[in-house]
Amino acid sequence: AQSVTQPDIHITVSEGASLELRCNYSYGATPYLFWYVQSPGQGLQLLLKYFSGDTLVQGIKGFEAEFKRSQSSFNLRKPSVHWSDAAEYFCAVGYNDMRFGAGTRLTVKP
Amino acid sequence: DVKVTQSSRYLVKRTGEKVFLECVQDMDHENMFWYRQDPGLGLRLIYFSYDVKMKEKGDIPEGYSVSREKKERFSLILESASTNQTSMYLCASSLGTGPYGYTFGSGTRLTVV
């Protein structure tokens, strides 16, 4: 069965600190992989995606993600977090119809 | 920019009512999707459509139906609303088959009383 796991429900980091959000998936074959961000009261916005090639992908807002086939993981990273990054982050996998993780809420301390 | 517009931001309906949630996209996308978002559960796929008059069940279709009479419009129907259908409903569209990602609407927060 297809599933997406985001192990961390809530993460708090200090502004300027680095960030890593975890995502693991279970799928028949390597699916397309995505990260979305949802700011409070807003719709979801695509941050980045992976479908083939270089396993380190760059996205918007200074985010990057690394695909590791052996671990079925697609973790999101940012070297230095800004207060405006406080939001909920969703990992999604699939081909045409995607499945989403439960989300990780990021709080940024001043 | 592609826009996905959901007709209502907030909606309050009574138990047993038939409810229509409308979604329109303006960039000729082939695929359209309906999800519901609940705290701690993320987004769960209700129905999707790859073409006009086509529909496919997602993971939680019970109590819902959909209609896609025109390419740009995808409607979600709650045949007889129940309190457990109180949720945030998100519509999304994508260009077609391939790694295109979704464009989401702003969502409709439905409360069934």
The stretches of 5 or more residues of chain A where confidence is low (pLDDT under 50) are none
Question: Mean pLDDT across all residues of chain B, rounded?
Answer: 94
| Mean of pLDDT of chain A | 94
The overall strand count of chain A is: 12
Report the radius of gyration of chain A as a whole number of Å.
Answer: 13 Å
Proportion of residues in helical segments of chain A? under 10%
Tell me, what's the shape of chain B? Answer: globular
Low-confidence stretches of chain B: none
Class per helix and strand makeup of chain B: mainly beta
What can you tell me about this protein's structure?
- With 110 residues, chain A is mostly beta strands.
- Chain A has strands spanning 3-5, 10-14, 19-21, 24-26, 32-38, 44-50, 56-58, 64-68, 73-78, 87-94, 98-100, 104-109.
- In chain A, strand 5 and strand 6 (44-50) form a beta hairpin.
- Chain A starts with a strand and ends with a strand.
- By secondary structure, chain B is mostly beta strands.
- Helices cover 0% and strands 52% of the residues of chain B.
- Chain B is built from no helices and 12 strands.
- In chain B, the strands form 3 sheets. In chain B, strands 2, 5, 6, 7, 10, 11 and 12 form a 7-stranded mixed β-sheet that branches. Chain B has a 3-stranded antiparallel β-sheet with strand order 3-9-8, with no helix packed on it. In chain B, strands 1-4 form a two-stranded antiparallel sheet.
- The mean pLDDT of chain B is 94.
- The A-B interface holds A 4, 6, 9, 32, 34, 36, 42-46, 49, 51, 90, 92, 95-103 and B 4, 31, 33, 35, 40-45, 48, 50, 56, 58-59, 90, 92, 94, 97-99, 101-107.
